Amino acid sequence: MHILAFFDGVPRLTKVLVTPLLVMTVGFLNLLTGWETDFSLFYILPVAFSIWFLNVRAGAIACIACAAVWFWVDLVLVHTYTSEFTHYWNTFIRLSFFCLFAFLLNTLKNSHERERSLARTDGLTGVVNSRHFHELLELEIARSERYKHPFALAYIDLDNFKTVNDRFGHATGDKALKIIADYVKRNLRTMDVPGRLGGDEFALLFPETDLNSVRTIIAKLQNGLLQAMQQNDWPITFSIGVIACDSIYPDADDLIRSADELMYSVKNSQKNAAKYEYYEAK
Description:
The chain is of the alpha+beta class. The protein has helices at 2-8, 12-33, 40-53, 56-76, 85-120, 130-147, 161-168, 170-187, 211-231, 252-269, and strands spanning 151-159, 193-198, 201-207, 237-245, 274-278.
């Protein structure tokens, strides 16, 4: 697992260069050891690497390259057969084996990525779930503290959501959550992270964003969300607490708690509003 994590962080160009290097290394070692030593297991290494860390196209090229190198090694070693056709037949079989292996490994990779995505994503809304949001927030806090960059966290609670569930049913409540999540995803920047913390509570992470900038973003989001709710005749409004950090960097739990408390101060006083504060150590 440590090797996989290491190569996940390697630049793509480096990964592209590793594949032919592996092919040439295996072919060279096969040449040194002679035709009596079976090297079939090692030829699948470049195929596996290119499939897992690159893509299907790179895997297909690796399959062809491995079969071609193996064919060339056989010719250099003067490994003669009773029929010249045998060289080509063996190469075809090897290529077929590599392609089958690549197909099965790519299927496994896709399944693995789906499982990872499901483990990090809220099944109803498609935004990140509470656990993964917490992980991303911890990473952003560490990054911002290192480079002294500002960021902001918004905690959003849906006012009157229970009324929608009671009056229209839970299916309508789920539809409302999906509409809210879809609107937020469409209208955030690429770097921003929306997450569902549970029930009718969402959180938004805004990297590289100071207090003045996040005010503008939240005002536009809140206005657009209210219009979406009104179009469906739902009485949902939004109580929002926003904490900005630019000199003091808390841990994730403290920051979420501060934004949650600020949101509840809105909810308990007026609802359908947003409050903004800089983070202060408590």
